[in-house]
Design brief:
Elements lengths: L6 H10 L2 H6 L5 E3 L2 E4 L11 E4 L4 E4 L5 E2 L1 H9 L3 H11 L12 H26 L3 H9 L1
Antiparallel strand pairs: 1-2, 2-3, 3-4, 4-5
Helix pairs in contact: 3-4, 5-6
Length: 143
Amino acid sequence: MSGRIPAEFIDELVARCDIVHIIDSRVPLKKAGREYKGCCPFHDEKTPSFMVSPAKQFYHCFGCGAHGTSIGFLMDYEHLGFRDAVEELASSCGMTVPDTGKDSEQYRQQTDLYRILELANRHFQTQLRTGPDSEQARDYLKE
């Protein structure tokens, strides 16, 4: 699978997957009020300074400053790239990453739009250089 992952899918994935479950399966967490705390996996510590907020779907370490969503956690903890972290998280939450590869209709439409924009760009550049009112247009743009 290749191509860009839609931002809407990323937002839905982060909202639907429980960050506490994702992190607690790798780092022991304890409930502390509305949040969870534990020892940070990104630096050595004896006193827990790693907080996880289920309401915000976000983690933050007050010791080393590490912070992010469940995707960022998987990238840092498991040493994964963005796409691999998204795919692992989606798999664990029962979601499927949409196919936006070169065979998808969306990719073809996007490619067609880029071609049209490139043709328009060339046309207007030519008009700006050699068109009947090109000198006047260039003077206007310089102002």
